[in-house]
Amino acid sequence: MPTVLIIDDNAAIAIALDVLFSLHAIEALRAASPEQGLDLLERHAGAIDLVIQDMNFSADTTSGAEGTALFRAIRARHPELPVILLTAWTHLDAAVDLVKSGAADYLAKPWDDNRLIATVNNLIELGQTRRALAQRLQAEQRQRHDLERYELRGMVWQDPATERVVHLACQVARADVPVLISGPNGTGKEGIAAIIQANSAVRDGPFVVLNCGALPAELIEAELFGAEAGAYTGAARAREGKFEAADGGTLFLDEIGNLPLAGQMKLLRVLETGRFERLGSNRERQVKVRVISATNADLPAMIRAGSFREDLFYRLNVIELRLPPLAERPADILPLAAHFLGPQRSLHAAAQAALLAHPWPGNVRELKNVMARASLLASADLIRVADLGLPAPASPPASALAAGAPGGRAGGALAGNDGEPDRAAIGMALSRAGGVVAQAAAELGLSRQALYRRMERLGIARSG
């Protein structure tokens, strides 16, 4: 029987929740203070599936600070344990902030019994599935040596953040569960989906892709499920949908957040039963399809706004792979750039520095386009800064650079351990100065001779 821990100093509320859960075959443990709650968590470690906690425990206190401290203590000790916050309007903002920090949900007092039970059941089911899958993955991981045993579909990376995602994608590939790949546009989510397909039990089946964000809302359902002739204006003949095309293989649904609510309901039914009807038809069809979805949207926020179904989210999100933006995996930039350029072209040291200094708001897709442009416009095999066509970065004050103050893209230092500007800082300065060393040296707060010595030590070639 699933177990919920209720932490609330109001005995009436705790009893009411206990009775509600008992009617739905859920056991409840009760604690009247944060200290008692944390003690119960330690004594029943592994047996508690979910925590419901109040936001205030002292009389005449409405700030929510006590609830915030309790939530953070639970997350520190049990980072995977879902926590639902019981909140009043006086501390709603604090609850919303905690949801952004990882709380599963918040419910205002008085709560809606049906919504509470639905949320609790979804979270318990999700947690149980994740734990079972995690145990299975750990057992498989002990038997595997490294990523070389997998089909990686030409994926290029060097950054540890990317490797973690690729490794997890390979691990979950053979588990017959839906996977949600989240991350900004252009990060390579389709490539991760292709790796999952290539290492799955249906790797010999079709791999069908549908970008839900590239179609008008009224056509998405027809693309997914097919349509009979005359089902909508312009449907002159019957056509099969992506589910039929992907039968026996994998369907990758990109930008799943753009799926309209009617389509979400039908998608949920297919995921649960494998059955659907074409638009304009009453004949039920059966398929066996592995669904991988991807999004750059905040689906929990869409659920709260009523534009995305909560039950569909939990069905799609059995396993979530988060692919970070390119700026958060900088070690991937130069290997990807070299891959896009091909073996016949190489990057000048200053061009490498410019690539590393760029924030890449368009992620891998932007990098690929920049390399394609450079290949077309470069007059030699050595790609220089001017060939890249990148916007000039904002120039920090020379005094800040000379003092080793941070600048450039977020988190990147412009000074080495010796307090002098590093390769990226020199590359940016040379780029802004058009390769004129004296001008770059003045911006960096160095003499021309000192900059030449620094360039020589770092292996930066003089242009021209």
Question: Mind explaining what this structure looks like?
Answer:
With about 475 residues, the chain is of the alpha/beta class. The protein folds into three domains: about 5-135, Rossmann fold, CATH 3.40.50; about 145-325, P-loop containing nucleotide triphosphate hydrolases (Rossmann fold, 3-Layer(aba) Sandwich), CATH 3.40.50.300; about 330-460, Helicase, Ruva Protein, domain 3. About 45% of the residues lie in helices and about 10% in strands. It has 20 helices and 14 strands. The strands form four sheets. The chain has a five-stranded parallel sheet, sandwiched between helices. Strands 7-8-11-6-12 form a five-stranded parallel sheet. It has a two-stranded antiparallel ribbon with strand order 9-10. Strand 9 and strand 10 (about 285) form a beta hairpin. Helix 18 (about 425-430) packs across helix 19 (about 435-445) and helix 19 packs across helix 20 (about 450-460). The longest helix has 29 residues, at about 115-140. It starts with a strand and ends in a 6-residue tail after the last helix. Residues about 395-415 have low confidence and may be disordered.
